[in-house]
Amino acid sequence: MAKAPPLYMRIERELRTRLVGARPGDVVPAESVLAEEFGVARMTVRAALNALESDGLIERIQGRGTFVRQRPAPRAAGTLMSFQDQVRSWGRVPRSRLVEGEVRAASAAEAAALQLTAAAPRVVSIVRVRFADDVPLAVEYACFPPHLDALLDLDLETGSLHRALHEKGLRPTLGSSRLTAQRAGGDGELLQVPAGEPLLVETRLIVDQHSAPLEYTVSRYVGDRYDLHVTFDVQPP
Fold it and tell me: Rounded distance, CA 235 to CA 34, Å?
């Protein structure tokens, strides 16, 4: 006789069936609730949920619970649209939480990127957590030249900085970015992930229609909540 599959696999299959009719963002019952329903130990339920999470069907958010996951449509690495427009294109609701908004001393990297020549260069610094349907996707560290300090008077939680720049006659036209991977570290609390969680880090510089540096931003994305799509040429050997 064929050997019966492990109990956690039977629970996993049942939950997969239920997820077919679920919507992104729906709450998945807690381990304790599922353990009582199936008459098993929580460890068995946890093994089933781990399998679903590794397949990208659900996500656990620290302090909030477990939810049906919607994988966002990947952003083409060669294009950049405003975060709000991008999240709306997924059919989700964008919002931001302001962590910091101030004029401060520029780091060496910021001064070089923005071509600041003052003896003690300063930047407009705006740090925000970016959300889609209340799920934190990224911490964004954006810097602008000091003459754009009026940006700090804007609604930085529901408004679009790129739209505000357009209204000031500044059009972001061209950019370059570098992609790396880092651990969440201190940003883990803001992103509701462990400090050791891997993040996709995009460091980008955007120039305006006059080719003047306009924005230097480091965006730290939760790796399994955000996708970048890259196309490339293959060089002959």
Answer: 53
Band the pLDDT of 85: cuts 50, 70, 90: confident
Q: Which residues are CB-contacts of 69 (< 8 A; sequence separation ≥ 6)?
A: 24, 56, 57, 58, 59
Please check whether residue 207 is in contact with residue 214, taking contact to mean a CB–CB distance below 8 angstroms: yes
Distance in angstroms (rounded) separating the CA atoms of residues 76 and 171: 20
Rounded Cα distance, 45 and 22, in Å: 19
Give per-residue pLDDT as tens, 114-155: 999 888 999 999 999 998 878 888 999 999 999 999 999 988
pTM: 0.70
233, 130 contact by CB (below 8 A): no
For residues 107 and 141, the answer to whether their CB atoms sit within 8 Å is: no
> Nearest-CA neighbor of 14 among 37, 43, 42?
37
- Residues, the chain, total? 237
Q: Within its chain, how far is the Cα of 30 from the centroid? A: 25
Tell me how far apart the alpha carbons of residues 51 and 113 are, in angstroms, rounded to a whole number.
43
Higher pLDDT, 227 or 116: 116
Matching residue, tokens 């994988």 = 71
Cβ atoms of 134 and 92 within 8 Å: the answer is no
Residue 92 scores a pLDDT above 80: no
